[in-house]
Amino acid sequence: MDAGMNTSTHLKAQARCPLQEHFLPRKSSKENLDRFIPNRSAMDFDYAHYALTEGRNGKDQVAAAVSSPSREAYRKQLAETMNLNHTRILAFRNKPQAPVELLPTDHSASLHHQPKSVKARRYIPQTSERTLDAPDIVDDFYLNLLDWGSANVLAIALGHTVYLWDASSGSTSELVTIDEEKGPVTSINWAPDGRHVALGLNNSEVQLWDSGSNRQLRTLKGCHQSRVGSLAWNNHILTTGGMDGQIVNNDVRIRSHVVETYRGHTQEVCGLKWSGSGQQLASGGNDNVVHIWDRSAASSNSTTQYLHRLEEHTSAVKALAWCPFQANLLATGGGGGDRTIKFWNTHTGACLNSVDTGSQVCSLLWSKNERELLSSHGFTQNQLTLWKYPSMVKMAELTGHTSRVLYMAQSPDGCTVASAAGDETLRFWNVFGVPETAKKAAPKATHEPFSHVNRIR
C-alpha cells in the first residue's frame, strides 16, 4: 500500500476545503654557498651597539647594583627591551613576511569585510513556507496536474475540478468542474501568455480555457483514443501525449488542429517538454523510453521520425527538464525501478552522466538563476532534493510530504517551487532563493483558502 493512503483517508475525514566559504616560497638552500654577506637593511643597529658596548663582567655588574640599585633595574629593563626576539648581531636576509589570510578567521564577520570574489553561501529553508490543502488530487504517477503560469497564477486539478491560485494576491477561484463522464482532469498546462490554459481529460479530449473570463474556447477531439496525461505548449502549438502512446501537435488557431503526429512510444506518454528554442521536443513514456523529436524535421500532416531513441532507463520516465543555461542538455528521471537522473546531449544522443538517487524520480526542475537542479521523489523519504550541477552534490533535502511528491511547478521569477503529493497537500518552498526585487508577499494562508468556493456539479 502506498505510504500516503492512510494520511489521505485521515485528511478526507476532516472535511477540508481545497486549496499554502601562504607560504612564501622557501629560497633554495644552495643560494650564496660561497660566502655570507650581511644585509644592512635587515640589521638592527641600535641593538648591535648595545650588545657590543654593554658587556660588563659579573663583578662590575654586582658593584653597580650595590652602588646604584635603580641603575641596575634600568639596565635590566633596557636589556629586556633591546634583546627581545634577538639572537644575532649580523643579519643575512630579511625576515619572511607573515602569511596573508585570504579569508577572515572570524566567520561571523560581515560580508562587506570579505573579498568581493568570495560569494556567501545561500540559505536554503528546510521547511515549506506555506501549505495548502489539496483534497481529491489524483495519486497517479503518470499524470501532470500542476502548473504555474507566466501571469503568476498556479493551476491545480483536484479530481474533476480545476482551481486557480493567484500568487500575487493570494486569491483563489474555481475555473471549471468537468462532467463525470469526461473527467477526471488528467493534465494541465498554461499557454505562454499566462491567460489561456489547456486541460487534458480522461475521455481523450482536450479543452482550452480563458482564465480571465472563465470561458471555454474550444474542445480538441480526435487526437487520442484514451486519456491525455501530458501537455506542452510551443507558441501556438499545443502538444498532447496520450495513453495510446501517440504524440500530437495541435495548431489551436485553425479548425483542423492536428498538424503533426509523433509515433515511437508503445505505452502511455507521461512526460512532454519543449526545449527553450522550441526546436526539440523530449517525450518520456511508460515503456521506459525517452525520445527526442526535431521540430524542423516535421512536415505538415505527416508522421515524424524521432531524432534519438534513448533506452537507458529501466522504468517509466515522466520527469523531463531542459537546461536553461546550456542548450541541448536534457535531464531525465526514472521511476521506482530505475531511480536515476540522467543527463543527455540531445545533439548526439550521448548520455553524459547518470546519478542514482535511491528513490523514484517524479519531477525535475532547473534553477533559472544558478547551476542547480531540483528533483522530487517517492518512497521512502518523499523528499525534494537540491543538486549542484555538474558535480551533483546534494545541497539540501526538503521533507514534509508524507507521500510521493508527484508534481512540481516553478514560479515565473524562478525562486519558489510548488509541490503537490499523494498526501493531498500543496507546499511552497523558497528553494531557489529570493528575487532581487521582491514584491509584496501574498497573505499567508493555511488549510483554508478555498473555503468560499462552491463547487459546480
Write up what this structure looks like:
This protein is mostly beta strands and 457 residues long. It has a domain at 129-429: YVTN repeat-like/Quinoprotein amine dehydrogenase (Methylamine Dehydrogenase, Chain H), CATH 2.130.10.10. 9% of the residues lie in helices and 34% in strands. It has 4 helices and 29 strands. A 5-stranded mixed sheet has the order 10-11-12-13-17, with no helix packed on it. A 4-stranded antiparallel sheet has the order 1-29-28-27, with no helix packed on it. It has a 4-stranded antiparallel sheet with strand order 2-3-4-5, with no helix packed on it. α3 (58-67) crosses α4. The two termini are 31 Å apart. Residues 1-14, 20-34, 98-118 and 438-457 have low confidence and may be disordered.
Q: What is the beta-strand fraction? A: 25-35%
Note poorly predicted spans. Answer: 1-14, 20-34, 98-118, 438-457
Structural class by helix and strand composition = mainly beta
- What fold name goes in the CATH topology slot of the domain at 129-429? Methylamine Dehydrogenase, Chain H
Number of separate helices: 4
Largest sheet entry: 5 strands, mixed
> What is the CATH architecture assignment of the domain at 129-429?
7 Propeller
CATH superfamily heading of the domain at 129-429? YVTN repeat-like/Quinoprotein amine dehydrogenase
